[in-house]
Structures are given as C-alpha cells and as structure tokens.
Model the fold of this input.
Amino acid sequence: MLVEAREIRKNYRVGGETVEVLRGVSLDLKEGETLALTGESGSGKSTLLHLLAALDSPDDGTITLDGVFLQNLDEAGRARQRRKTVGLVFQQFNLIPSLNVSANLAFQARLADRHDAAWHAEVAERLGLTAHLRRFPEQLSGGQQQRVAIVRALASRPRVLMADEPTG
Ligand SMILES: Nc1ncnc2c1ncn2[C@@H]1O[C@H](COP(=O)(O)OP(=O)(O)OP(=O)(O)O)[C@@H](O)[C@H]1O
Ligand SMILES: [Mg+2]
Done:
C-alpha cells in the first residue's frame, strides 16, 4: 500500500473555538490507483491532502506513506519521506516567482536529489510547456502556471502524485 490513513482526526483552533474538520477518515491507495476526493468548499479536502503528504500532523489516527509510519518521524524525517515519495500540486501553485519555469522544475528535483534534465524536458513537452521554459510565473496564464506546478510535482519521479484542485 502506498498511502494508508486510519481514523484521521484534525481540528483547528480559531480564536478559542475548536473547529472539527476531519472526524475519522480512513483510506487506502495502492500503486497505480487513482483516487478523487470530492466535497463542498470547506469540507476538508486540502486539510486531508496536507496530512497525507506529511506537511502537517493529524490530532489522532495514523498515516503510513510508502510503508513508513509518519508519527514516528520528526519534522525533518517527514520532509525527507515527503520528498522521496510525494509530488504535490498545491491549490495555490506555490511557484517560486524569482525563478523561470525551467529553474522552478530543477529546484524541486534537486531538493529530492533527483535532477534529470531529460525527464524534465519530456514532462514539460507532454504538458505543452516547452515554449515557456524561460518565462517567469507572472508571465504565464493561470492554466499555464498550473501545468508548471504539475510538471514540477512530477520532476522528482514521485511514487504518488497528490494534486489539490488540479482541474481548477
Ligand atoms: N489554518 C487553519 N486554521 C483554521 N481553520 C482552518 C485552517 N485551514 C483550514 N481551516 C478550516 O478548515 C475547514 C477545511 O478547510 P480546507 O481548506 O481543508 O477545505 P477544502 O475542502 O479544501 O475547501 P475548498 O474546496 O474551498 O478548497 C474550513 O472550514 C476552513 O475554514
Ligand atoms: Mg481546498
């Protein structure tokens, strides 16, 4: 199993009030499988994705990412496991504004120690970005920026791709 979540609970504290967002979510994701999370705005999709990607920790429940129990890791260990395993496309794309498209792709892959220029060229080509590699994020349309974010997420050849609102 690539991703296993068991009875995940997550609350946020907002000005002395507790907001229960996730109340016992379980899911399994196998290699090669596709899973779509749907739900109305504010229902907790991004919150769940961030937990599965080891960006944040649940208040209760367990998450296993590619065989590793996340709660046994400290922050640095979670970051390592995330870089090794997960490609992440954020709802706000989080491209680095001072880097052109090409450098945005390389930066992410270097963090994971998996820079591979031939692979970058291939995924950029497949997502129709070859003509835009020298542009900066602010010089791209919303859909183009989103495709850069997807290519960047794939740049390190992750085991699992997690995308927040990828068709937005
Ligand atoms: N850092 C935070 N602090 C407090 N409340 C938060 C925080 N992040 C999210 N929330 C609240 O948690 C709930 C779930 O938010 P989340 O972003 O996970 O929803 P979503 O399903 O991704 O929504 P959307 O479809 O609009 O992207 C919302 O009620 C939101 O207001
Ligand atoms: Mg969201």
Q: What stands out?
A: Residues 16 and 46 are 22 Å apart (CA to CA). The chain has a mean pLDDT of 93. Helices lie at 45-52, 75-85, 101-111, 117-126, 142-154. The longest strand covers residues 17-29.
